Predict the 3D structure of the following.
Amino acid sequence: MILLDGKILSKKIKLELSNEVNEIISLGQRKPHLVAILVGDNPASRTYVSAKEKACNEVGFDSTIIQYENNVPQEDLIKKILEINLDVNIDGLIVQLPLPKHIDEHLVIHSISHKKDVDGFHPINLGKMMLGLPTFLPATPFGIITLLKEYGVNTIGKNCLVLGRSNIVGSPISILMSRNTKFANATVTLAHSKTKNIKNLTMNADIIIVALGKERFLKSDMVKKGVVIIDVGINRIKSDRTRSGWRLVGDVDYDNVKNKASFITPVPGGVGPMTIVSLMKNTLISYKSLNKNKN
Ligand code: NAP
């Protein structure tokens, strides 16, 4: 079994990014700048935004977190987004999801300039992805593709099963894995909560990408020997092994499934760090594209 180590690979990519930033600075130009908007006090969202801020510091980007109370009026949020869209010193804008119920998530995503939408959630960017045009790929699918490519996992003609059809992970990765490109070219099945006989599908899959949010859902008796496993899930469970009293597990029963897998991502340390570094990559792409005529 080969561990698809997102921690090691993301470190390598961060080093490459920070070298590029040093070059930019040495030319007397400003650093790339990522802004994150955080609404409310969801602890998981706070943790994700802090991790993104830390990554910005590591690669040498400027980063700003704009924090709003849970009851912020939708108009205030949109007004701020429109301001940021016009700010020439900002290259990337993300709004941490989920948002409180009184805010229309689609409207918020629509309001972000597609040129600064480094999360790749804007319909224009999703449409470009669908057509195979250059764009910001959503960070988690982008990270998964990078990981599979780097480890030389053969995807061509393989049966790839994606469990979960969210707009941010399951649906976009199913499109990317089925694309007619040098990489990918898999035969993709997308399963969800209404899918019948999931075990029949998992037993037939060469590659399984699990994005459900169901702790240790995929068991070893559900997969065939040699399967490639990408575990996107992040679930917090109680634990007497840690000082905090909890630990993170994925959607895969890792300890048992790993014995049958040819390649597998751990949780933590697999897809998570690849998601964050992919966001950094998108921010640098945006910086270069927005500033190409100025430098
Ligand atoms: P989500 O929006 O929570 O949706 C879950 C998906 O799983 C839905 O499509 C749902 O089907 C499906 N589902 C739920 N129970 C199922 C079952 N028993 N059998 C088959 N399908 C089932 O998904 P998400 O936002 O992609 O998040 C999934 C997990 O990934 C979460 O743990 C999240 O924290 C984690 N995540 C991790 C990263 C990272 O960087 N590592 C990034 C994003 C998300 P329906 O559509 O029919 O409801």
